[in-house]
Amino acid sequence: MPAEAPCQTDYDFIFPHTKERRANLILSWEQDNKEGKNVITPAPDYKWNNLGGLYQSFYDKYANDSIETLIELFNQDVHKIIQLVESYNDQELFEQGGSQWASSTPSNWPIWKWIHINTVAPFKTFRTKIRKWKKIKGYNF
């Protein structure tokens, strides 16, 4: 598992790398695909075995944003992902080969799995981070 970037503020426990953030990776892959561009997963200059560097770039990009800004960006991302999911038919969403970018790795996952691992799945990690943050801060709620 790649080393995570050090937390700079209390909010880093709540809004780490998922903001752009992994949901935005999906949105950028989809946009690049629609524009006929070569889709590079996970991102240009990063390979799947260097996600720690990619996550650090997310921290760096959003380090100075307020919690209010991060929440607004997060809500926008959620809305865009919902629209994207609704734009697929069942075959595209649930079967392999639903999109060029989803077929770009040897695993050839269906789109739903890419969306799951880049949106919902990280929140399991958040739960642990939030508990740790609450313990460090002495919160008992």
What does this structure look like?
- By secondary structure, this protein is an all-alpha fold.
- The chain has 6 helices and no strands.
- It has helices at 18-34, 51-62, 67-87, 90-94, 111-120, 122-137.
- α1 runs parallel beside α3 and α1 packs antiparallel against α5.
- The two termini are 30 Å apart.
Q: What integer value in Å does the Rg equal?
A: 16 Å
Instruction: Give the strand tally.
Output: 0
> Averaging pLDDT over every residue, what do you get?
81
Determine the strand fraction and express it as a percent band: under 5%
- Helix/strand structural class: mainly alpha
- Estimate the helix proportion, in percent: 55-70%
3D shape: globular
Offer a few descriptive terms.
141 residues, mainly alpha, 6 helices, disordered N terminus
List the helices and strands and how they pair.
Layout: H1 18-34, H2 51-62, H3 67-87, H4 90-94, H5 111-120, H6 122-137
Helix pairs in contact: 1-3, 1-5
Overview in brief:
The protein is mostly helical and 141 residues long. The chain has helices at 18-34, 51-62, 67-87, 90-94, 111-120, 122-137.
